[in-house]
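Session log. Operator J.P. requested a structure for one protein chain; no other inputs attached. Running the standard single-chain path with token output.
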Amino acid sequence: MKKIETSITELFVIEPDVYGDSRGFFFEHYNEDRFKEMGINTSFRQANHSRSLKGVLRGIHFQKDPKPMAKLVRCTFGKLWDVAVDLRPDSLTYKKWFGLELSEDNKKMLFIPEGFAHGFYSLTDCEINYMVSHVFDKDLDAGIAWNDPEIGVDWRLEGEPILSERDQNQPLLRDILYLSSNI
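Structure written below.
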């Protein structure tokens, strides 16, 4: 398993060691000891799995304090464009985003630390599996507009995205009144 630095501090691409032959393949997508050896000291408390049709855009979501979520994201079927946005006000990369194609073929994962927002765009019908560091709390659930010009994510869209009502109505970052302790 290999940890690859990104342009944003503490946000990492994880490349697992994949063992395969004519029968299929095997890899560990999470091993607490290996993650700690790589300097990632996050415990995961919940695992989620979702399916999206091609063209669906989900996000940009985050969970506020006191239970901000770190995530370990991977695509188990199809391919998607995965995006993390740094919402840590004291970070040198505050409001910056990073995107990466995740697919069943490349088996890459994205480790997203606490203090980030997350979203993805389905490049094909896809399934995504992600582990999170806190149990979901609907009272702490929040989001920002997927097309916020202040952030400027390049979603690699192929036409108009398919959005939930919630994601159609997320506020712009500048309209969210928060302190760093609320993220």
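Operator note: The first helix runs from residue 32 to 37.
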